[in-house]
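Hi all, posting the design record for the shared folder.

TITLE: backbone redesign
STEP: 1 of 1
STRUCTURE INPUT:
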């Protein structure tokens, strides 16, 4: 029998896409960006990209590295001097002991998360994710063939993760718990006592854990950040993920890292090599400069974020809009149900009528459709103007 032409075979299929290529329809974010394209004087309080410039010393270090010849591959796991510096900082600031060989420098924390999930999750494994959450976690788990299990976090708890909520969803297929602390989009900070209970639960049920700590330097009010890997029984079952994007205003540099148990490293390095060979060496040198000299800049940016946070919370109080008080990060997660609008309608109409862009919770695995994420990533004057517009919009919505 003659072989069927390739084109005919493709035509006979419902889709030529692989099953792992999850169908993604035009997102709500796309709808908002399309609407914004036709508007003027927009104040964006949606994106998670700091409005500060990368500190000059870091930029200079990256530029000098290019001039000095850092233009070829580094080892897949990263430059030894950067890995050593990361291990030192983790021991000094986080009370977590990793050797240089337990660090992989990645293209942003997002690649570190993907490497970790691909290394740990088999098809059918259950992965416990807090909700609301950064939506890329979902796609990563699906790429690995895992099954997502939601653990809700609540406004009444300021969106801290609770041990009893995790315990309530455990099954014999539970393998991995992913914690973001502080969390995006809520700013929820899970305190030490609760993390200690979560650690005991993880040991009891032999759970592996990924601890996403990308916002660890952006903690409000002098609160404590605790690395999960520092707690009893956790160093051999926890992958710590972090990076330079948020605290040092280096989002475009794409430098992150994972620190993991020794038993995971050989496989994780090979996945890293397959995905991207290495993280650009000159950018790694910039990250090294951030560790060596960037703390004053971080402190200055954090102080400004706290001023902006006080402004947002005060204006939300004036509007009668409730929220979970964020312990860190760059966001406020506000409950707009008192306006009578669902979150997606609120965001679209606020953009259309007042040229202020915020994002609905539905973009962050929150099906309730009654929350919005407000970022702290615009100058104070712009935020004041945006919040004035938002208050006008809220008052009008309640009058209608």
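Okay, here is what came back for every position:
SEQUENCE:
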């Amino acid at each position: 029998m003659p072989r069927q032409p390739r084109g005919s075979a493709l035509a006979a299929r419902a889709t030529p896409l692989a099953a792992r290529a999850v169908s993604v329809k035009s997102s709500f974010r796309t709808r908002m960006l399309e609407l914004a394209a036709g508007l003027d004087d927009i104040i964006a309080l949606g994106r998670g990209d700091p409005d500060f410039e990368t500190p000059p010393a870091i930029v200079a270090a990256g530029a000098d590295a290019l001039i000095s010849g850092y233009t070829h591959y580094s080892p897949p796991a990263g430059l030894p001097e950067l890995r050593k510096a990361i291990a030192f900082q983790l021991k000094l600031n986080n009370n977590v002991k990793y050797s240089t060989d337990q660090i992989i420098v990645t293209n942003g924390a997002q690649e570190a998360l993907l490497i970790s999930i691909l290394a740990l999750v088999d098809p059918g494994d259950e992965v416990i994710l807090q909700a609301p959450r950064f939506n890329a976690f979902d796609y990563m788990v699906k790429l690995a063939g895992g099954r997502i299990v939601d653990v809700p976090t609540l406004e009444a708890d300021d969106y801290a993760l609770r041990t009893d909520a995790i315990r309530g969803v455990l099954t014999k297929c539970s393998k991995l718990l992913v914690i973001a602390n502080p969390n995006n989009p809520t700013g929820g900070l899970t305190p030490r006592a609760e993390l200690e209970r979560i650690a005991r639960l993880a040991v009891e049920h032999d759970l592996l854990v990924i601890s996403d700590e990308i916002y660890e330097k952006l903690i409000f009010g002098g609160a404590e950040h605790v690395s999960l890997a520092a707690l009893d029984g956790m160093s051999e079952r926890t992958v710590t993920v972090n990076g330079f994007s948020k605290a040092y205003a280096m989002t475009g540099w794409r430098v992150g890292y994972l620190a993991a148990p020794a038993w995971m490293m050989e496989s994780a390095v090979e996945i890293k090599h397959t995905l991207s060979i290495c993280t650009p060496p000159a950018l790694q040198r910039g990250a090294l400069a951030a560790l060596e000299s960037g703390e004053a800049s971080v402190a200055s940016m954090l102080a400004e974020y706290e001023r902006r946070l006080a402004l947002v919370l005060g204006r939300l109080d004036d509007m009668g809009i409730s929220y979970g008080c964020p312990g860190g990060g760059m966001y406020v997660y506000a409950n707009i149900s008192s306006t009578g609008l669902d979150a997606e309608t609120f965001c679209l109409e606020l953009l259309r009528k007042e040229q202020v862009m915020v994002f609905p919770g539905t973009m962050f695995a929150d099906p309730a459709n009654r929350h919005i994420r407000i970022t702290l990533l615009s100058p104070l004057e712009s935020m004041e103007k945006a919040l004035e517009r938002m208050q006008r919009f809220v008052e009008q919505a309640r009058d209608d």
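COMMENT: Residues 295-319 form the longest helix (25 residues).
Let me know if anyone wants the other runs.
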